Each structure stands twice: as C-alpha cells, then as structure tokens.
Amino acid sequence: MEETISLQDLFKTIRKRLGLIALLTILAITIAGVISFLVLTPVYQTSTEILVNQSPTETGQLTNQNIQTDLQLINTYSGIIKSPVILGPVVEELNLDLSTEQLNSKITVSNADQSQIVNISVQDEDPAVAVEIANTTATIFESNIQELMNVDNVTILSPAVLKEDPSPVAPNPMLNMAIAAVVGLMLGVGIAFLLEYLDTSMKDQQDIEDVLGLPLLGIVSPIVEKAELGPESKTTSRRRAG
C-alpha cells in the first residue's frame, strides 16, 4: 500500500515543529550577523580611470582607424596592468608587504564595451592603501607603456580619491543575514520532517487506521481513579458508623 502525504499533513507537521523551525532560523540569522559585524574584516574599494587615446594627426582629427586601434589594444593593456612588469614597481614604490600575485588578486581591470576608458579597481582592508595602489598602478603603467609598446596613447583620466567616510563593499551584513535566514528556515523545515518521519509512535485513532488499514470499532476511555478520602471524610464516616 502506497503511503501518501496530503498538503494538510505537511502543514500539520510544520505547525507542530514551528518552534524548532523558528529557533533554527533565528539562530542562523544571529550567527551570520555576529560573523559579519564582529569577525569579518571590512574591505574597501576604489578605482581610477585611464583613457586610451592616440594623439591627433597632423590635421588635428582622430581617424576611425586610430580609435579602432586603441580599442584593440585595451585587452593587451589590461593584461599588462596586472603583470609583474607593472605590479613589481608598485610593490617597491609603496613598500607593500605583498607579493605581485597577492597584489594581482586585489586589482580588477575592466572597460565598457567599445569604450576607450579603462577602469582599475582596487580592494583593500585599508581605504587609503587602496587609493595609493590604484593611483600608483595607473601612474607606473602610463610611464612604462611608452617603452613597452612604443606608444603614447594613455592618459590618467580620473585618479582615485580617498573619501571622508568610505563605506566597505564587503561584507554585506544584510545580505549575509538574509541568506542565513533562508538556510535556517530550510534546515528547520527539513529537520521537522525528518523528526516526523522517524517518529513511529501512534498518537491517535487516525494513526491506527493508517498503519493497520482497519476501521476503528471503539475507543476505551481512560479510567479516572477515585480520590482518597480526606481526614474530615473519614471522621464523618466514623460518626455515622457509631
């Protein structure tokens, strides 16, 4: 005989274990909040922009061919910016206690489609250090690219600036707590159904009918024991007997 579970049974199980589900959800949110606010170190991000643009021709105009050449070079420039040729001097100039590989992981180079602007983003636990790394990287790249590729088409468009009250980009406590709430809720519901599945005791007549497959003929009511007579009742009984 196949065992089927109705929607009513599901809600009954959830309602029965609602306290456990709520407890696990609150516990998960609390743990995520404590870790996000007290354990994880805030990470700050800043960026600088460089413009890839060749000098005008003798006629004072940039041709479409020059622009297309700059766009094709941007991918090459992105690789050069994150190479040891550029990051090595950055580490030395700023006296960073980092290897070029570690510094590479802090830097992200990107540009919009068909844009001649390259964005150099830096993440660090110290916002001032992030600004220094971004600006130094752009400066060293601007000066070294002339020797590396014999071109002069890079200009720093917008240097990174240290804000008065910078906001960290990570961690995101609200997002972490929201994810923890979902995980805690799912875990609570899963444990609730697991406990219900492992509980094989019979609690009412419906459980008996479901397990045995037989109709219930009758119910034996619980027998209530009579209370013992108190001292006053015993005295009264003796007087009547006398």
TrEMBL record:
Q: What is the lineage of its organism?
A: Bacteria, Bacillati, Bacillota, Bacilli, Bacillales
Occurrences of domain Polysaccharide chain length determinant N-terminal (ranges): 3-94
Classification via InterPro entries = Bact_polysacc_biosynth/exp (IPR050445), GNVR (IPR032807), LPS_length_determ_N (IPR003856)
Similarity section:
Belongs to the CpsC/CapA family.
Give the bilayer topology.
Multi-pass membrane protein
GO molecular function annotation: protein tyrosine kinase activity
Keywords of the record, alphabetical order, are: Cell membrane, Membrane, Transmembrane, Transmembrane helix
The record's Gene Ontology cellular component field reads: plasma membrane
Where is this protein localized, as stated in its record? Cell membrane
Q: What is the protein named?
A: Capsular biosynthesis protein
Its predominant location is membrane
Under PANTHER family, the record lists: FERRIC ENTEROBACTIN TRANSPORT PROTEIN FEPE (PTHR32309:SF13), TYROSINE-PROTEIN KINASE (PTHR32309)
Q: Which organism is it from?
A: Planococcus halotolerans
